[in-house]
Amino acid sequence: MNTHTLTAALDLADRRVPVLPLRAGKVPFGNCHACRDNACGGRPNMKTPGPCDCPRPCHAWAAATTDRDVITGPAWAPVWKQAAAVAYHPGGTGLTVVDLDHTDAVAWARRTLPATRTVPTTRGEHWIYRGAMPSANAVRDGVDIKSTMVYARWLGPGAGIMAPLPDVVRALIVKKPPSVRPVTVPVLAWGGECCHRTPAYLERGIAMAEQRITEAPIAVHATVYRTFLAVLSTHGRCGCLTDAHAARLFAAAQAKGETARHCVDAWSNARTALGM
After folding, report:
1. Which backbone phi and psi does 222 adopt, to 5 degrees?
2. Which of 87, 125, 229, 238 could bridge 194 with an S-S bond, Cβ 3.0-4.6 Å?
3. How far is CA 12 from the centre of its chain?
């Protein structure tokens, strides 16, 4: 058994920090057979905070716990033999980690962010603030935000006084809708008025598309592409769509974790598939 990782996990748990084991490669243990395809009743795609009902450490951040009986219990005991590191759920203990992945990102933080507790990492630093917020990756080059619904590797207590979470960090995850090229297509051959220009018809179609993306429990990439394809096939050949409509769909996709680049690629691929 890896007593070093287990001892570190128990020490954190005693300080009310939810922990979980990591295997080699800084990744969590894969879902057990009982949890595969959410057979255990776990939340689809882990979209809401809180632990999974499964007693095993196989749901990443949602498995994080402060319960010593669980950590040392029979369900977790075999895992500590393979554990390479310990992770914790920052949001679960009211913290936010600004993960700075290289020296340029660290230099940016020192120029921009209030001083706080820092922890050295392999390539950069973790800056830790008091206060939780939504997590987001790649908010700028080499900068990730780790707080709710994610885990961070435990690399030691760090140095410095932990500061309150500042607005400048919260603002990092506020994204402006991406600029989207307008859909330009030939005018209808018969010269009649396009029925899709009826405001209620188009608005209903865009709202349904936003809802489809927002409610996708799994396969978000595929859902976004299929939704873009459906919208373009219905409204894209008569000039109905505007940048504002596309931006709404992009915003819905980004709220599910898609990047602006993935949105642009999905939109472009859908247009190509439709010959537009």
Report:
1. -65, -40
2. 238
3. 24
